[in-house]
Write a structure and sequence with these properties.
Elements (H helix, E strand, L loop, with lengths): L10 H14 L3 H17 L3 H8 L13 H8 L1
Helix pairs in contact: 2-3
Amino acid sequence: SGNIKMNELTKYQIDQIEQMIAQDHVVHWELKRGERADIERLISISCYRGIRHQDGSPLRGQRTHTNARTARKQIRK
């Protein structure tokens, strides 16, 4: 009702909160799983973006001569 701490909630209240969250919102792990599936699909069809994902290079046309070097070195270690 008011400001209640998590450890003071009943099992019923916790279940209600979980149901409300699961109804309309994508939970964090579901979103990550979907993103990973999308990337795997791009890699499997060998499109430009999939190849760039594999290489760890920028996908959206960013400059790679100087700016992407640091990010690529960190990924390849």
